[in-house]
Amino acid sequence: QVQLVESGGGLVQAGGSLRLSCAASGGIFSFYTMGWYRQAPGKSRELVASITDSGSTNYVDSIKGRFTLFRDNAKNTVYLQMNSLKPEDTAVYYCATSDYWGQGTQVIVSS
Fold first, then answer.
1. pLDDT at 54 over 90
2. What is the pLDDT of residues 78-96, one digit of tens each?
3. C-alpha 22: how far from its chain's center?
4. Measured between alpha carbons, how far is 8 from 94 in angstroms, rounded to an integer?
């Protein structure tokens, strides 16, 4: 049973930065492809970034150049560094792997 715990969300002004963390337990973290999803009010959940076990990353166009996804296998943790935040980044952010999901962390970007 894999458990994922997100942290690092909060309220930030437009143009600011946040770093989200997702700590994993209960499995062999280094083998997992990890994804960060977000769900804005009234919208469907979308995949915004993913990282493979070898560290290859993919980003949705709306965050390219602003967000960076990286992992620390020694700490069983994946991070989403979010810079130049925009009000449209406001959402609940979730990390996930396979069928396992964290509880989510709220990000609010004020204009």
1. yes
2. 999 999 999 999 999 999 9
3. 7
4. 11
